[in-house]
Amino acid sequence: MAIDTATGLEAPAELSSERVKSVFSSIARKYERFNAISSFGAYKAWVAGMMRQADIDPSHDVLDIAGGTGEITFAVARSKHPRHIQCTDLVPEMLEVARAHMAEGASCGVPVDFQVVDAQDIPYADESYDVVTMAYGIRNMPKREQALSEMLRVLRPGGQLVCLEFSTPPNGAWRALYRFYLKRLIPFWGGLVTGDREGFVYLAKSIKAFPDQQGLAKLMEQAGFTDVKWKNYTGGIAAIHTARKPA
Ligand SMILES: C[S@@+](CC[C@H](N)C(=O)[O-])C[C@H]1O[C@@H](n2cnc3c(N)ncnc32)[C@H](O)[C@@H]1O
Q1: For a FRET experiment, which of 100, 104, 132, 236 has its CA 20 to 30 Å from that of 74?
Q2: Overall number of domains in the chain
Q3: Which residues is 113 bridged to in the sheet?
Q4: Cα(181)–Cα(158) distance, integer angstroms
Q5: Atom 26 of ligand 1 has which residue's CA nearest to it?
């Protein structure tokens, strides 16, 4: 089934895919600033959480899905030194920025390749990666079940999925404050700083329409992952889910 990622309602996949291409191709050069604002400045701590939870060692091949400008790819390279990282994204303009960071030495010598890939149709062989990382990717995908099945397919038995995504604060008061901030302040503030109000309006809508922690865990289990766990960050504004392909 395909959905409109801004509402969660059933819709042709092209609607969301075209919108996401338009949003990210236009903000690619401003994305890192956009990211710092949209994650309320907490992104670095959330990435550090991802690195703590990722079971990556120097013999591993890592696939970064929706890798964007390479934030997660380069954090993995710096902190884990895997054998190889494949950094992929739907939008070529985002990967161009990642390539420029690579040219400046961001991977600390770890081999990284870049490729435009739709995570809903991954062009790699079965069982070819030890770990799949994905930050802020699945929320933007209209065919989430298919994307998760593809990630499961390319993982080796026992391989790990590590997924950072915006989520739902369990505390009602915190959730209400956060939703007010998302709906009213983020488009205004983000628009002012980056000149791209529409990108922030989409961000706010897609977060509201996205499944909560349990809902995302269920999608992972339905795709065939086991040992699905999550840890909340910043009171549940973000969550990191980890899951395994059965050994
Ligand atoms: C918010 S950015 C996150 C980038 C990066 N992971 C980070 O943490 O900075 C979301 C990325 O998801 C990518 N994306 C959206 N739909 C995708 C799809 N179907 N397949 C692959 N990437 C996708 C977008 O192009 C965009 O670069």
Answers
A1: 236
A2: 1
A3: 86
A4: 40
A5: 68
Ligand 1 neighbours (beta carbon < 6 A): 20, 24, 35, 66-69, 71-72, 89-91, 94, 118-120, 135-137, 140-141
Q: Which residues span the domain enclosing 134?
A: 13-244
CA of 89 to the centre of ligand 1 (A): 6
Is 6 domain-assigned? no
Query: Is 7 contained in some domain?
Result: no
Residue 5 lies in a domain: no
Note the pLDDT tens digit of each residue in 4-55: 999 999 999 999 999 999 988 988 888 887 777 777 778 899 999 999 999 9
The preferred substitution site among 90, 196, 203 for testing ligand 1, maximizing ligand atoms within 8 Å of CB, is 90
Q: What is the CATH number of the domain that holds 150?
A: 3.40.50.150
Query: From the CA of 90, how far away is ligand 1's center (Å)?
Result: 7
Q: Would you tell me how many other CB atoms lie within 10 Å of the CB of residue 203?
A: 23
Which residue, among 137, 129, 143, has the nearest Cα to 90 in the 3D structure?
A: 137
Rounded Cα distance, 136 and 65, in Å: 9
Of ligand 1's listed atoms, the one at least distance from the Cα of 28 is 27
Digit-coded pLDDT (tens) for 46-104: 999 999 999 999 999 999 999 999 999 999 999 999 999 999 999 999 999 999 999 99
Residue in 86, 91, 114 to alter for ligand 1 test, most ligand atoms within 8 A of Cβ? 91
Give the contacts of 103 (CB within 8 A, at least 6 positions apart).
Answer: none
Inside any domain, residue 3: no
